[in-house]
From TrEMBL:
SUPFAM superfamilies, per database record: CofD-like
Cited Gene3D superfamilies: CofD-like domain (1.10.8.240), CofD-like domains (3.40.50.10680)
UniProt entry keywords in alphabetical sequence: Magnesium, Transferase
Upper classification of the organism: Bacteria, Bacillati, Actinomycetota, Actinomycetes, Propionibacteriales
Pfam families: CofD (PF01933)
Protein name from the UniProt record: 2-phospho-L-lactate transferase
Species of origin: Microlunatus spumicola
GO MF annotation, one: transferase activity
Length: 325
């Protein structure tokens, strides 16, 4: 069985770990979001790819949800002591090794997909059936417009990482831009994996800054729409709120309510002009299923709390079984 998973960082990693648990013998291609990548102190950082790589490779800090296990922060102390900006981005000492290798290879002209494969050769060697592809090799970065009374027009633009890590998604997000997305091409293997898949899973990752950019890479949405495999989407919004993260701050910015049904409608049914065959909502949102069904989006209800890979595997397997039955 060939499975494609669309994933962001923390939620995407937990989901993928559950998919692997549910289908230990499948070939799983994870298409990771790169729209929150950032260059910091000259180093190219790909937060979602790294979270996926470390988590699935057993090298991630499960409690924090991102970064390396057993991390220390001495390099960033030195940067702070020099007054080197920015100081708000969490660059761990062990994590720095990854960014150094990546930055060096990128500078030598190696595409990000190849760099990612080389980094994963270390972390995913135990699981040759697992493959990580960046959504694109082309640089894409997300910027958020926030209010600023002193700036021209009363607003200024900050990198998504600054919005999230430094500002904790506090200011209202007036607008979002994924710079570079129009010119981005799907990374080698992405369209091929979707076309060859037996199953395409849209993880419960942030619909605005994780899944949104993947679908916005020209060609990816069309690939999902024409995929021979069933496409299942899983809600990361439970009972009107994300389980973690800032989706509730960003969904309104793109005109989508913070609500599992609204996110399902936003992705849409393949029978209309959307990307899903089936939308899966949490038991807390069971009440929204009949209306979604009536609107042409087949909807399943499951306990979607990813408390462990086993718990995630249970809802993945049971929804897939029902769809394939
Ligand atoms: P990020 O890139 O690190 O922000 O992570 P993702 O975009 O991959 O995932 C964040 C999303 O995962 C959030 O919108 C969460 O609501 C969702 N999420 C996190 N934990 C759970 C969970 O246990 N169940 C479900 N259904 N969604 C979750
Ligand atoms: Ca992310």
């Amino acid at each position: 069985m060939q499975i494609v998973v669309l994933a962001g960082g923390v939620g995407g990693s937990r989901f993928t770990a559950g998919v692997r648990r549910a289908y230990p013998d499948a070939t799983i291609t994870v298409v990771g979001n790169t729209a929150d990548d950032i260059t910091i102190h000259g180093l190219r950082v790909c937060p979602d790819l790294d979270t996926l790589m470390y988590t699935l490779g057993g090298g991630g800090d499960a409690e924090r949800g991102w970064g390396r296990l057993d991390e220390s922060w001495r390099a960033i102390e030195e940067l702070r002591a020099y007054g080197a900006e920015p100081t708000w981005f969490g660059l761990g000492d062990r994590d720095l090794g990854t960014h150094l290798v990546r930055t060096e290879l990128l500078a030598a002209g190696v595409p990000l997909s190849e760099v990612t494969a080389r980094l994963c050769a270390r972390w995913w060697a135990h699981d040759p059936g697992l493959r990580l592809l960046p959504m694109t090799d082309d640089p894409v970065e997300t910027y958020v417009d926030i209010p600023d009374a002193d700036a021209p027009g009363g607003r200024r633009s900050v990198h998504f990482q600054e919005y999230w890590v430094r500002l904790h998604a506090g200011p209202e997000a007036l607008a979002l831009r994924q710079v570079g997305i129009e010119a981005a091409r799907p990374a080698p293997g992405v369209l091929e994996a979707v076309a060859a898949a037996d199953l395409v899973l849209v993880g419960p990752s942030n619909p605005v800054v994780s899944i949104g950019p993947i679908l916005a890479v020209p060609g990816v949405r069309e690939a999902l729409r024409s995929a021979p495999a069933p496409v299942l989407g899983f809600s990361g919004i439970l009972h009107g709120a994300p389980v973690l993260g800032m989706a509730h701050r960003l969904l309104p910015t793109i005109g989508v309510a913070v609500d599992a049904a609204a996110v399902g409608r936003h992705y849409g049914s393949r029978r209309a002009d959307g990307v899903l065959d089936t939308w899966v909502v949490d038991t807390a949102d069971a009440g929204s299923a009949p209306a979604l069904e009536a609107d042409g989006l087949p909807t399943l209800v499951r306990d979607l709390v990813m408390s462990s890979p086993d718990a995630t595997a249970v809802f993945v397997r049971s929804t897939v079984d029902q769809v394939l039955a």
